[in-house]
Automatic annotation (TrEMBL):
<feature type="transmembrane region" description="Helical">
    <location>
        <begin position="57"/>
        <end position="77"/>
    </location>
</feature>
<keyword id="KW-0716">Sensory transduction</keyword>
<feature type="transmembrane region" description="Helical">
    <location>
        <begin position="200"/>
        <end position="220"/>
    </location>
</feature>
<keyword id="KW-0297">G-protein coupled receptor</keyword>
<keyword id="KW-1015">Disulfide bond</keyword>
<feature type="transmembrane region" description="Helical">
    <location>
        <begin position="97"/>
        <end position="119"/>
    </location>
</feature>
<feature type="transmembrane region" description="Helical">
    <location>
        <begin position="140"/>
        <end position="161"/>
    </location>
</feature>
<protein>
    <recommendedName>
        <fullName>Olfactory receptor</fullName>
    </recommendedName>
</protein>
<dbReference type="InterPro" id="IPR000276">
    <property type="entry name" value="GPCR_Rhodpsn"/>
</dbReference>
<keyword id="KW-0812">Transmembrane</keyword>
<dbReference type="InterPro" id="IPR017452">
    <property type="entry name" value="GPCR_Rhodpsn_7TM"/>
</dbReference>
<feature type="transmembrane region" description="Helical">
    <location>
        <begin position="25"/>
        <end position="50"/>
    </location>
</feature>
<dbReference type="GO" id="GO:0005549">
    <property type="term" value="F:odorant binding"/>
</dbReference>
<comment type="similarity">
    <text>Belongs to the G-protein coupled receptor 1 family.</text>
</comment>
<keyword id="KW-1003">Cell membrane</keyword>
<dbReference type="InterPro" id="IPR000725">
    <property type="entry name" value="Olfact_rcpt"/>
</dbReference>
<dbReference type="GO" id="GO:0004930">
    <property type="term" value="F:G protein-coupled receptor activity"/>
</dbReference>
Length: 314
């Protein structure tokens, strides 16, 4: 017999099974990961804002991607740290919805922003002489705004199905709140939400893949044609697009790992939960390193400002 859970009642996140004596160690790991995310992404944003030479479409889009990474990491890691440190698992209904909304927005916005970045790289390589005429400030902000609008709209519709859905349980069998995890507690079946969720996920992933594949196919074509005239074109195109492609591939690998891990019934629940947060804890921590290693201009600017600060203190 289940008792319906009100909208303002406490839910309980099952979280990880933490062996005695390991809570502090896991808290330190989660804290370290979050500090790396904050510092790495913070440095990238600050340098891009300070250095006027980086006020260009590619770096503006990187700033949007950084905001998206911070959204995903901040939605999950602070509560996970609290779970490890204090054992607190309770979460009110509205914060649970807010966390789930943020996590899903992070997942969709990352893809839509990467799609916008692919379009920018396509124009930069395939139409270099017309690039500034095409990618104006208005077009740039429109692309970024559209990427966020699509993500927020998709997730807003997804969570609109939560309205007037009574819950007949309060234990969320996950590390963080998600649409599916919350609706598993529903007193009745939710087929419309299930169909919309799957359709939306498939449409966004497939659509962004087509945009990126088309963009890079045209970039490859343009690079091969122009490399016969200018040998430096291919290496310049490679340097321009590598960071974007690596970030996209990393995100997709993390997503595939989550899907594959749930296909193994023999795998422990903690292993499945760990894999399910990989796409939140790994890309936001690694992406700033990818930007810095691949983008020579960003790397040089970071080194220049860091050196200036060091000598200024001395």
């Amino acid at each position: 017999l289940f008792i319906a859970v009100g909208k303002y009642h406490q839910l309980v996140l099952e979280g990880f099974h933490v062996p005695p004596g390991y809570s502090s160690f896991l808290f330190v790991l989660a804290l370290f990961n979050y500090m790396v995310v904050l510092m790495g992404n913070g440095v990238v944003v600050c340098v891009i804002i300070i250095d006027k030479n980086l006020h260009r479409p590619m770096f503006v889009m990187i700033c949007h991607l950084v905001v998206c990474d911070l959204l995903g990491a901040t939605a999950v890691l602070p509560r996970l740290m609290m779970h490890f440190l204090t054992g607190e698992r309770r979460i009110a209904h509205i914060p649970a919805i807010a966390q789930a909304f943020s996590v899903h927005t992070y997942g969709v916005a990352t893809q839509t922003l990467l799609g916008a970045m692919a379009y920018d790289r396509y124009i930069a390589v395939c139409e270099p002489l017309r690039y500034h005429a095409i990618m104006t400030s208005a077009r740039l902000h429109s692309c970024c705004g559209l990427a966020w609008f699509v993500a927020l709209l998709c997730i807003a519709v997804l969570f609109a199905f939560h309205m007037n859905t009574p819950l007949c349980g309060n234990i969320i069998k996950h590390v963080y709140c998600s649409n599916r995890a919350i609706l598993r507690l529903a007193c009745r079946s939710t087929p419309i939400n299930n169909i919309y969720g799957l359709s939306m996920s498939w449409s966004v992933s497939t659509g962004i893949f087509i945009i990126i594949a088309f963009s890079y196919f045209r970039i490859l074509q343009a690079s091969v044609k122009r490399s016969n005239v200018d040998s430096g074109v291919r290496s310049k195109a490679f340097q321009t697009c590598t960071s974007h492609l690596v970030v996209y591939v990393l995100y997709e690998i993390a997503s595939v790992i989550i899907i594959v891990s749930h296909r193994f019934a023999s795998a422990s629940q903690d292993i499945k939960k760990f894999f399910s947060i990989l796409f939140i804890i790994i890309p936001p921590a690694i992406n700033p390193i990818i930007y810095g290693l691949v983008s020579k201009e960003l790397r040089s600017s970071i080194i220049k400002h860091f050196t200036k600060q060091v000598f200024h203190k001395k």
